[in-house]
Amino acid sequence: MAVINPPGADAAQKLRSALAAVEAGAALQPLFEAATEWLELDAGEVLTREGERDAGLYLLIAGALDIVRAPAGDAAAAPEVRGTVRAPELVGEMQLLTGGVRTATLRAAERTLLVRVAAEACEQAARSAPELLSTLAARVFNRQCRDRLLQILPAFLETSDPALVDWIAAQVEWLSVARGDFVVREGDPGGDVFILVDGRLRAISQSAGGRALGDLVPGDVVGETQLFTGGRRNATVVALRNSVLGRLPRARLEEAMRRLPDLGLRLASVAVERAQHAVQRSAPLRAAVNLVIQSADPAIADACARALREALQAHGAAAEVSRAAVGRALGRPELCDLADEDPRAARLRAWLSEQEARQRFLIFVSDQSPAWSARCLGCADIVLQVTTPGAAPEPFVAPQAEASTALAQAKRWLVVLHEDTHRPHRTAAWGERFSRYFHVRRQAGADFARLARAVAGCEVGLVLGGGGARGYAHLGTLQAFEELGIPIDALGGTSAGAAIASCYALGYRGRELEDTIKRWLGGSVDYTLPLVAISAGGHMLARARQIFGDLDLEDLSLPLYCIATDITRFGMLVIDRGRARDAVLASACLPGIFPPVLVNGRWAVDGGLVNAVPMDVMRNFLGPRGIIIGSDVTGGAAAARVEGPAGAAGVNGWMQLLRTLWGRRTLPSIVDVLQSSATAAGDYQLQRVIDIGRPDACIRHDTAGHSIVDFSRPAPLRDKGYAATMEALRPLVDSGRFPRAV
Fold first, then answer.
1. Choosing from 606, 616, 632, 696, which is the catalytic residue?
2. How far apart, in whole angstroms, are the C-alpha atoms of residue 567 and residue 305?
3. How do residues 44-93 score in pLDDT, each as one tens digit?
4. What does the alpha-carbon distance between residue 511 and residue 23 come to, in Å, rounded to a whole number?
5. pTM for the full predicted model
6. Catalytic residue, candidates 322, 495, 535, 587
7. How do 411-418 and 436-441 pair as beta strands?
8. Which of 217, 311, 345, 444 could form a disulfide with 452 if both were Cys (CB 3.0 to 4.6 A apart)?
9. 323: part of which helix (H) or strand (E)?
10. Is 606 a catalytic residue?
11. Are 249 and 185 in contact (CB under 8 A)?
12. Pairs from 522-526 (Cβ < 8 Å, separation ≥ 24)
């Protein structure tokens, strides 16, 4: 590289011509004319190197520079050419704004002429004309957006014609929207089309009660339908993160379609595809997932971020985004403290956008800096509040924009970080602001793997159905899961299934689990005057207290919901919070046998009346990509015909008692009648539940010949359940459908 004298008498004219050809060049002309150094490079010579601190501003007069960068995560690999900058163009605005290190090597692709303004001269000019920094920041923003759009357009337009792609990119107007802002509203006039280049949006049908139609990720289009129909917007689109869109006004888009007739067909196909697959698109696979970790203890936040990043690698590339990571990458950790509107923040925005394009998961680690915290929360899909058992609840810091609309709220999960053993303590004290609770042991890779599956949207949910003593078959299902190495990330249950699931979530396994269920459900009954029920329910409650104490569902090591029948408002009651013993007792409270249980201000009885195997509830809990297995114990061949008295009017209770004592009873007992009625009601609805829940498998156990009320013999049903589960799930395991337990 040679420093040369200005090339002839026309040097000033060359400088002015180059500045006139670049965006905002006129505003920079006084700067270049006042302090300019002319440089000449031969092909292959390096102008600046990756990692160097060079804050000079360059204007490319003639020739071209290759952008050379080492592959991410492979320091030993040979550097690659990532792009080329051709004259006339500015180079170095980002480093001038931030003073950070170069993120790429610039190497002459051919004989190249350029001029340089030293950083000191730029800083002096900025002090006398502060708008200079804003001009440079606007240039950087527009160039970043254009670069992202140029990556998107060829695939979207299905053309590789660079002239056409460049022409369309030049017609775009850039629009920044903050989290919670509306892009379009349902009912507004249509016209302009928007292309998302950064961030995430959600389409919502206000006319359908606010139902989410799907999420939009970079490369998706908003407004293509109205382009053809001329009608009004058929959905509201809101920003889930701070986002950037390219707006194509209708007049310019019509001109683009005249130049590229296939563009209209492409936009029409997008509209049709979206209409056909709106539900499936609610969970885009190609969009990065942004997590934010918050904690009052920075050491805990850092430890959780490292462990979670390692666990997420099983699902895709993951990177930690913290103050330290910014410092390592950009050489300026103080960039984290800049407000988004500060021109110097442009480089941080660009780096974050680049990370999102490269990674499947970004783990932001928030800290006490208001600016950094706001930036993290502004792009969050999931916020993890990390704490320890017994710690006092901390106030939740939400981005200001989020308060403007409930539509853009990030998921908020509480992660309780335990030492070697799970020690639950007043998790519910953190309140209703968290939708999920995770209990994670610091050194347990399996616990972080479970959290990672929740983030990746591929959890395994097991649903155990009701059926009285036939629920012992679920014990065999749980045994098979463990032997097959299938992790269980969430549990749901009805009646006896809720009882077994709750004990499993509490930590009972194997023979201990079997014995506990047998003592609890098969124990003595305290009969009473049958004004409300034939049992007072005291013995059942006492045994539940021995198992759960005062634990809440939020304290259990695995998430659990129980299904009960709401006889106050006549419907299904999903219980996933509150006292664990009350939730399970309500779900298993057979009406007429046990008194109803008061839950959240409602009287609740056995959930088998409304949903015997609640796989539909699990689908809502896990989302569209979760793996769901149902275990139904109501199946088996029914008796074709029974013999007995002609009608209820001829039944003498005392005589039935004697027949029972003699072993000659022909009528079912009141317990059998009620339990079987509940089972029949739930079984009748099972197909509807399967259609909604779309389980990966629903194991129908053959429990014919086994009493619903005989809790004395668990082994035969357990063995049947084990065999049926192994037969149903082994092919799925062999095909790789399930994640493997750690």
1. 606
2. 45
3. 999 888 888 766 788 899 999 998 887 765 556 677 887 888 889 888 87
4. 74
5. 0.81
6. 495
7. parallel
8. 311
9. helix 323-330
10. yes
11. no
12. 522/469, 522/711, 522/712
